[in-house]
Write a structure and sequence with these properties.
Layout: H1 20-39, E1 46-50, H2 56-64, E2 69-74, H3 77-85, E3 91-96, E4 109-115, H4 124-134, E5 135-143, H5 152-160, H6 169-177, E6 181-189, H7 193-203, H8 210-228, H9 232-238, E7 241-248, H10 251-267, H11 271-281, H12 287-297, H13 303-318
Parallel strand pairs: 1-2, 1-4, 2-3, 4-5
Antiparallel strand pairs: 5-7, 6-7
Helix pairs in contact: 1-2, 1-7, 10-11, 12-13
């Protein structure tokens, strides 16, 4: 394995006690974590948040009784200090890390939470591999900012708050799948009315008169009804977040996925992609059996391909 020495840019945030804005956002994110785990029967005993910031998510997780043991790691010492000053039920530790290496043994956690962190990370795959090493399940959430990529103002705005990556649901699933995360479930949606109302009247300074607030809430309800009726592709363009629950893919699951992909390529007449998948994913000791199976399955519909797979059997047996 090749080892590279890379210069890593780390920008420490100066955190303060979570504001109402941060807590509202954390409540939304914790709601997504809880819902994904509930729907899949996951009750984590030991949970780690990577990139725990000011502790707002840990605080909401602790107050909800989500997990008996909570841990956090954060780049900024100020975030750790603020987190440790808060009365967070179940918090075992919150410690500083370098952004990539997690100070825990393999499979130490039932769940790792990575909420609105990937958009900040220079080397996403390095962090994902480390997260997979220490955990059995993961909840990963991203902001839906990819639709801003054509907007040059966003090219200035994103880095101003540390966002240097932007993903679609498809690109996130591709990233995870190619790192052998198996996506079990997903949530796609918009932030809650409480978050959007605070953003409108506090962050952006709109006068919070009774009339303005009533009109805002009515528009929000109408927008939610319209959003729910949209097809998936249009929902993606109007969503605020995308979250997935995942776990490590087993060798057997990867093998089954590869064989299914090979079969589909051959059915569709895409022979070269089938060859490439076979070469990359099928273990050498299984080549004779798999090649013979495919030769038999496609003897009638793809006789030339079947002969090619039979030749693989002969070559493997002679080796």
């Amino acid at each position: 394995m090749t080892t590279l020495a890379l210069e890593i840019h780390v920008e420490e945030t100066n955190y303060e006690t979570p504001t109402q804005w941060r807590l509202l956002g954390a409540q939304d994110k914790v709601g997504h974590i809880v819902e994904l785990c509930r729907r899949n029967g996951l009750k984590p005993g030991r949970t780690l948040e990577v990139g725990s910031g000011d502790g707002a998510i840990l605080r909401c997780l602790g107050e909800s009784g989500f997990s008996p043991e909570l841990y956090g790691v954060e780049i900024s010492q100020s975030g750790i200090d603020i987190t440790l000053q808060q009365p967070i039920p179940g918090l075992v530790s919150c410690q500083q890390f370098d952004g990539y290496r997690l100070p825990f043994p393999d499979d130490f956690f039932d769940l790792v939470v990575l909420s609105h962190v990937l958009e900040h990370v220079e080397y996403e795959r390095a962090l994902l591999r480390e997260i997979q090493r220490v955990s059995r399940h993961q909840v990963i959430e991203i902001p839906m900012e990819f639709f801003n990529l054509k907007n040059e103002t966003f090219h200035l705005l994103g880095p101003s708050y540390g966002h240097i990556n932007a993903h679609t649901p498809d690109s996130l699933r591709f990233l995870l799948t190619t790192e052998r995360f198996k996506v079990l479930d997903e949530l796609l949606g918009r932030y809650s009315m409480a978050v959007l109302e605070h953003d409108c009247f506090v962050n952006n300074g709109v006068a919070s008169t009774p009339e303005n607030v009533a009109n805002f809430r009515q528009r929000h309800q109408e927008n939610e009804a319209t959003f729910a009726a949209l097809p998936r592709e249009q929902q993606e363009n109007q969503s605020s977040f995308y979250a997935v629950l995942s776990r490590r893919e087993s060798d057997q699951e990867q093998f089954d996925r590869a064989m299914a992909g090979i079969r589909q390529c051959l059915i569709d007449g895409h022979v070269q992609p089938a060859r490439l998948i076979f070469k990359h994913y099928i273990p050498q000791e299984l080549v004779p059996t798999c090649a013979l199976t495919l030769a038999r399955e496609f003897a009638t519909t793809r006789p030339q391909v079947a002969l090619e797979f039979l030749e693989m059997v002969n070559v493997a047996l002679k080796a």
